[in-house]
Amino acid sequence: MVYTVTFNPALDYIMNTDTLSADDINRASADEIICGGKGINVSTVLSRLGIPSKALGFAAGFTGEELCRMLTESGIDNDFIRLENGRTRINVKIRCSSEIDINAAGSEIPDKKLTELFEKLNCLENGDFLVLAGSVPTSLPNNTYERILNKLDGKSIHAVVDTSGNQLINTLKYNPFLIKPNHHELGEIFGISADSTEEITEYACRLKSMGAQNVLVSRGEKGAVLIDADGNTHTVGAVTGKAVSTTGCGDSMVGGFIAGYIKSGDYDYALRLATACGAATAFSKGIAEKEEIKRCFNEIR
């Protein structure tokens, strides 16, 4: 089973408008509400690829109730911990000639609720996947991901960590199955530009030597580089197309890699499916549907 954790989920309110002006009332030409949050995005991709998962995290207020209802309606199993105070945030995404995102602050998560999450994670069994994605909310200790992995240490859990900076580095001692920095995040970690394939490969190998089993570095329009658990290097180019939004592309790559690995056990296939999922989401208004993922996969050479 794959479990995803989203500490700070959201309802994303997406509005499309032809023009945007501060001097007049702006009217949307179309709008929609979707479930947002990095772990939720991973679960969505997995669902569309036929891989079951359970989405975990925290939900509050009437917006939290709607989030869980929408996930259940879309076929995504979920078991969110309900918070007594606050509400699950609503993020506003304005799509005009450019993207304007206004992300709200999340609800405060008290210690007793974090303990409830630890208890839920105790049910994970050998061979399960656990996805920890995004930054840790300010209401929680900065070492929360470390604490989770420490409590699971000794089990054969495939931990997937998709965060940045020290929060990522500090999890490497637990030998996560997969980490997925983008090339900018890789550069920030080591103070380099991380532009060339050679440089990305060198420093991805350093992250592997620090404990990560598989290191997947996304490069946007330049594709991706994978250093796999056997020390082999895989590269893949990008899929051509018109980008609609960058939101959720990295999460889609994570979901695609997990699905590809579960289906085949082959790192090259997992990388190709990850790249297809990331590109398909870039070309879509939300998280990509299965047919668009299939089209992008078939275009990868």
Describe the structure.
It contains 10 helices and 13 strands. It is α/β, with parallel strands linked by helices. The strands form 2 sheets. A 9-stranded mixed beta sheet has the order 5-4-1-8-9-10-11-12-13, sandwiched between helices. The chain is globular, with a radius of gyration of 19 Å. The mean pLDDT is 93.
Q: Assign an overall shape.
A: globular
Q: Which spans have pLDDT < 50 for at least 5 consecutive residues?
A: none
Order of helices and strands: EEEHEHEEEHEHEHEHHEEEHHH
Report, as a whole number of angstroms, the end-to-end distance: 31 Å
Structural class: alpha/beta
Physical arrangement of strands within the biggest beta sheet: 5-4-1-8-9-10-11-12-13
Major pleated sheet: 9 strands, mixed
- The DSSP helix count reads 10
How much is the radius of gyration in Å? 19 Å
Question: Notable features of this structure?
Answer:
23% strand; alpha/beta; 301 residues; 9-stranded mixed β-sheet
Which helices and strands occur, and which strands form pairs?
Elements: E1 2-6, E2 10-16, E3 30-36, H1 38-48, E4 53-60, H2 61-73, E5 77-83, E6 89-95, E7 99-102, H3 111-121, E8 129-133, H4 144-152, E9 158-162, H5 165-169, E10 178-179, H6 183-190, H7 197-209, E11 214-218, E12 224-227, E13 233-236, H8 249-264, H9 267-282, H10 290-299
Parallel strand pairs: 1-4, 1-8, 2-6, 4-5, 8-9, 9-10, 10-11
Antiparallel strand pairs: 2-3, 6-7, 11-12, 12-13
Helix pairs in contact: 1-8, 8-9, 9-10
